[in-house]
Design a protein that fits this description.
The protein is mainly alpha-helical and 309 residues long. 75% of the residues lie in helices and 3% in strands.
């Protein structure tokens, strides 16, 4: 497809139009960003500064917290800038970079959640072989695969968009450079690109979500053979994972499975996996987790003691 691109920058229309609403939301989302930043930093430092880093589940959780920080830092600043600026513009090159980075980091996060589900499956269904199957080498291999698969997904998405001609309006009805919002500005037939987006993003997200649902159903089924105490501990851990999976995947499916003509609330749905889920992750993984709470007390009590010594 010949690229006849006359657009050098895009204007992000953002979430809201009314100035008074935008100012209130700026304060709210700024507080959300602080909560995401400090919450995930606390989890990250707690895990690497304690014995929990030796356990596969917390090793993956440490990487998930890092991904939450990186991913939200590519999206939320753009949202905050939109809420205080009269016009939020972004150059074509920066838009493509943001598109690639957001899909890459969210893809890594998605496959880390799959790795965490695999960890719980082995821990509950094959406890005697847990340390052999989920060793550090295999954990690192799963993380490398998450980065490689996410990179392939993101680069394919970006190359597809770069090849499309933008020669009309440059107003993106979103607060970030999202692929579906950009496709609405293309001045050519977008049926094939729309199908590619659904295949490359929508179906991948849906398939991954279904795999996770099946894995947690199998885990729950196998719990019937465990003691009451073991069931309670496993259910508490799995409940946290399931809450995170639902917060991340369901809005993604609602965003990327329907065709653009049927999508009216994409930017509202995207708030869940770009802001709400990363903000809730620290709460979900700590409030119901005694090991994390004990580790936080030891690590941060030691740090405070050193500071005031």
């Amino acid at each position: 497809m010949e690229n006849q691109n006359n657009v050098t920058e895009f204007v992000l229309l953002g979430l809201f139009k009314k100035p008074e609403v935008k100012m209130i939301c700026f304060v709210i989302f700024l507080l959300f960003y602080f909560a995401i930043f400090f919450g995930n930093i606390i989890i990250f430092i707690t895990i690497i500064g304690s014995h929990l880093i030796q356990q596969p589940m917390y090793y993956f959780l440490c990487h998930l917290s890092y991904m939450d920080l990186a991913y939200t830092s590519t999206v939320v600043p753009s949202l905050l800038r939109d809420l205080i600026a009269k016009q939020n513009s972004i150059s074509y090159n920066n838009c493509m970079t943001q598109l690639f980075t957001a899909h890459f980091l969210s893809g890594v996060e998605m496959f880390i959640l799959v790795s965490m589900a695999f960890d719980r499956y082995v821990a509950i269904c094959k406890p005697l072989h847990y340390m052999i199957i989920v060793n550090r080498q295999r954990c690192n291999m799963m993380l490398v695969m998450a980065w490689l698969v996410a990179f392939c997904h993101a680069i394919a998405q970006m190359i597809m968009v770069i090849r499309l001609p933008f020669c009309g309006s440059n107003e993106v009805d979103h607060y970030v450079c999202d692929v579906k919002a950009l496709l609405k500005l293309v001045c050519t037939d977008t049926r094939i690109p729309n199908i590619l987006v659904i295949a490359n993003t929508g179906m991948v997200v849906l398939a991954t979500f279904l795999v996770l649902v099946v894995s947690y159903i199998i885990i729950l089924y196998n719990l019937r053979n465990h003691s009451s105490a073991a069931r309670h501990k496993a259910l508490s851990t799995c409940a946290s994972h399931v809450m995170v999976v639902i917060l991340f995947f369901v809005p993604c499916i609602a965003t990327y499975i329907p065709p653009p003509s049927a999508s009216q609330n994409d930017k509202e749905f995207s708030m869940f996996y770009t802001v709400i889920a990363p903000m809730m992750n620290p709460l979900i993984y700590t409030l119901r987790n005694t090991e994390m709470k004990n580790a936080m007390q030891k690590v941060w009590a030691a740090k405070i003691f050193v500071i005031f010594k």
